[in-house]
Amino acid sequence: MAFPKPRSSSFATTSRTHMRPSGGTIDDSFLTEIKNTQNRKLSQKQKTLSCQFSIGDQLSPWPTYTTDQTILHNRKPCSYDYRKRAGSWQKQPLGITKPRYLEQLENYLRKELLLLDLSTDSTQELRLQVSKLRKNLAEEYLRYLSERDARKILIADLNELRYQREDMSLAQSPGIWGEDPVKLTLALKMARQDLTRTQMELNTMKANFGDVVPRRDFEMQEKTNKDLQEQLDSLRSDYEEVCKEHEILLQLHMTTLKERDQFHSELQEIQRTSTPRPDWSKCEDVVAGGPDRWQKLAEGKNSDQLVDVLLEEIGEGLLREKDFFPGLGYGEAIPPFLRYDGFVENKKPSKKDVINLLKDAWKQRLVEEKEKFPDFFFSFLEHRFGPSEAMAWAYTIFENIKLFRSNEVMSQFYAVLMGKRSESVYIKQKETVAQLLKEMTNADSQNEGVITMENLSTVLKSNFPFKKEEKIQELMEAGGWHPNSSNADLLNYRSLFIEDEEGQSMPFVQKLWEQYVDEKDEYLQELKQELGLELYDEVTLPRLREALMNIDPGLDKQTLNGYLSRAFQLPMTELPEEGEEKEEGIVVRLKIALERLQMTDIRRMGSREQEPTS
């Protein structure tokens, strides 16, 4: 059941209602009005209470009008026994009329009990209501405490305003007593607010700019810092340049040291084994053909090459004295075309006959490339001389090409036959020579057999775009051009490609071959430096692939895989794709890989600065 909340303190309400908004002091008339209002409310409350406790201007005798009747028994509300007693009590005649307020209260209680439907045991619900009432009582108590505190604060404010008014009255001079106190109070309040705001701004400025330097000093320091930064950048750039030069000098120094050590070793070896320079003119009377033939054999050769020529001449004489060659047997180390037991006949062909036979074999090989080269060679001999004579010719030709190392045709055929050089090297060289002759012929528009030196230079540069200028000049000089001659001079270009009766090429083709060998050596040396390994270290397939692409970005995929296939002795179909191989997978010793690449046709496909192509 909810009861009406008691009213708040009339004094506090009245005080709050009559306070001036301007915050000024309260005068005596205002206090008198507050007291009169309190007296009126108090009289009204007393009248209301007197009306509540009286009936017909007389005090109600309740609850002393009867002694044998109680209003509420110690029973559970709305129980059957309770309602039965309540019904019988209502039916009993009353000698004295109940007070009106009591009847209203009972009727209110009866309605509430009926609404709550307490026909069952609901003591717990009643307890919850005895809890709500306590809560309401506590809230009312707190509210009354708040009202009391507010009243005390209001009284303190009133006293403060009174003291301020008295202070202002004492402080005012007789000339300004007529000023409005409210205006002065507002002015004082605004001045205090300005003082507080100014103090806060001052504190903020001190906190934010306490460590700030003057702008002039800041700009001066900034300029000094900028100058020092520029000097630092300049010094750093100079330092980096000096470091680069230092690295270059170190590399040059190391190269010079290696060359010095090498030259020193060679000098010691020469000093140890040096003998007086031989007089090669003594060979003129020994070599068949006399001085004329010896001069032809010795032309343009150094001492080492002359020793080879002399050995060939001696060996040729000994070779012609042999009638039979002993068979080498059937060992695995023996080439297939030499596996034979017993003696075979020495056919004793001339040097020219052997060269012509080798040329015919090369022509046949260009048509048929199905078999391995040693098997093809023996098949060629069987087809040319018959199965019964093939072994004799195989031994005869083998002994001749092994002896005559100075002859181009024999030395190249021997290297390919013994697996020391890939046959693709010979084929590519012949294709290059044929391509040069074709383009020179196209430059000869009149078909006169001559071209200018300028035409020769153009053909060489178009066929060898990665050769250095000095290499091009070497080829032109080998073809007959001299620095003092004019580019308009005519050249018999067909004479550059003829061969003598022993198959020897002209100086132009020989220089072309020498440059190819030198460029291959430089290419492989650059590859070794890129890998940064020693000869007996192992190299993996992905690392070799990366090194080849770094030194020669112009390599196409087919050529690159051909090099890798040769270096690792794997078919191209079994090579893993780029990015799929494992680092620890296929490995080979660097020395073996370089030797295998040396045997094949390997050459630069683009400049190192060129971007890689797919």
Sheet of most strands? 2 strands, antiparallel
Give the oligomer, counting copies of the same chain as homo and different chains as hetero: single chain
Structural class comes to mainly alpha
What is the gyration radius calculated from CA atoms?
Answer: 64 Å
Tell me the total number of β-strands: 6
Helicity range of the residues? 55-70%
What is the averaged pLDDT score? 79
- SSE order, as H and E? HHHHHHHHHEEHHHHHEHHEHEHHEH
What would you say about this model in short?
The protein has 614 residues and is mainly α. The chain is built from 20 helices and six strands.
Structural notes for this entry:
- By secondary structure, the protein is an all-alpha fold.
- Among the domains are: 10-169, no CATH class; 224-274; 322-420, no CATH class; 532-614, no CATH class.
- It has 20 helices and six strands.
- It has helices at residues 10-17, 28-52, 80-91, 100-116, 123-171, 181-209, 215-273, 290-298, 303-321, 351-367, 373-385, 387-403, 408-417, 423-443, 453-463, 469-478, 507-531, 541-551, 557-568, 590-599, and strands at residues 324-326, 343-345, 451-452, 490-491, 538-540, 587-589.
Break the fold down into its secondary structure elements and pairings.
Elements: H1 10-17, H2 28-52, H3 80-91, H4 100-116, H5 123-171, H6 181-209, H7 215-273, H8 290-298, H9 303-321, E1 324-326, E2 343-345, H10 351-367, H11 373-385, H12 387-403, H13 408-417, H14 423-443, E3 451-452, H15 453-463, H16 469-478, E4 490-491, H17 507-531, E5 538-540, H18 541-551, H19 557-568, E6 587-589, H20 590-599
